[in-house]
Amino acid sequence: MIWKATHQSAVVALALVAGLAVPAQHSKPHGSKHSLAREAAVQRCTDEYEARVAAAHAPNSPTGKARMRTMHAAAEIKKACVARAPK
Predict the structure, then answer these.
(1) Whose C-alpha in 1, 18, 21, 46 is 20 to 30 A from the C-alpha of 59?
(2) Please, what is the average pLDDT of the chain?
(3) For residue 84, what are the domain limits?
(4) Residues 6 or more apart from 18 whose CB is under 8 A from it?
(5) How far is it, in rounded angstroms, from Cα 20 to Cα 9?
């Protein structure tokens, strides 16, 4: 009697797992939505931005408002660069 109830529970659990696994197999792959050219252009923009930020934080670079303006300009340049990137 106990074996029968356990067996039924196991069968039901396997059926549920199999039912959930089938839709997962048929889902489309989640690849990149952007072209390789866009990804390369955005990566180049990011690299340039990071170089500007590193230069703004260099030991002998300006501080205070001058650094803030430099960081803001770097962000605006990156934003414009990404906007120019191919779609």
Answers:
(1) 46
(2) 82
(3) 34-87
(4) none
(5) 17
Q: Which residue has the tokens 């074996």?
A: 3
The answer to the question of residue 86 being in a domain is yes
DSSP state of 64: T
Residue 15 domain-assigned? Answer: no
Query: Which of helix, strand or coil describes residue 60?
Result: coil
Residue 78 belongs to a domain: yes
Rounded CA-CA distance 45/15 in Å is 50
Tokens of 17: 């797992």
Tens of pLDDT, residue by residue over 11-54, are 555 555 555 555 555 555 667 688 999 999 999 999 999 999 99
Tally of domains within the chain: 1
> How far apart are alpha carbons 57 and 52 in whole angstroms?
9
Tokens of 78: 């990156």
| The pLDDT value given to residue 87 | 86
Closest CA relative to residue 51, chosen from 69, 32, 71, 36: 71
